């Protein structure tokens, strides 16, 4: 269950980061509310996952999922550049997440 909680926490990190961008500096109410609610839920699930997973693994995977998800949202929804070098960097983050999962007993 800890890995499932961690994965959902990472997805919620993408939600709150994307909503934060849409809040335009917390000046738009609904994206601000989504940011706060998703942030609280993400942290709660991360904390729950950390009961069974090592700190370094849980935090690295959580931030990696968030980074990759925000990267994908930026490209797909916000029209950000998908240059070969940026895609390589995202691939390296993904490989780090996979290695953390494999290396954790």
How would you portray this structure in words?
Pfam families: Multi_Drug_Res. InterPro entries: EmrE-like, Small_drug/metabolite_transptr, Small_multidrug_res. It is a multi-pass membrane protein. It is found in: Cell membrane. Its main location: membrane. The protein is mainly α. It has one domain. The chain contains 4 helices and no strands. α1 packs antiparallel against α2. The longest helix is centred in the middle third of the chain and has 22 residues. The radius of gyration is 14 Å and the shape is flat. The model has no long low-confidence stretch (mean pLDDT 96).
How many separate structural domains? 1
Query: Given the structure, what is the number of helices?
Result: 4
Stretches where pLDDT falls below 50 for ≥5 residues? Answer: none
Largest sheet: none
The average pLDDT value, as a whole number, equals 96
The number of E-state strands comes to 0
Radius of gyration from the alpha-carbon trace, in angstroms? 14 Å
Strand content: under 5%
Briefly note the structural class of the backbone. Answer: mainly alpha
The best one-word shape is flat
Q: Work out the helicity level.
A: over 70%
Distance between the termini: 14 Å
Give the H and E element order.
HHHH
Keywords: Cell membrane, Membrane, Transmembrane, Transmembrane helix, Transport
Family: Belongs to the drug/metabolite transporter (DMT) superfamily. Small multidrug resistance (SMR) (TC 2.A.7.1) family. Gdx/SugE subfamily.
Pfam families: Multi_Drug_Res
Membrane topology: Multi-pass membrane protein
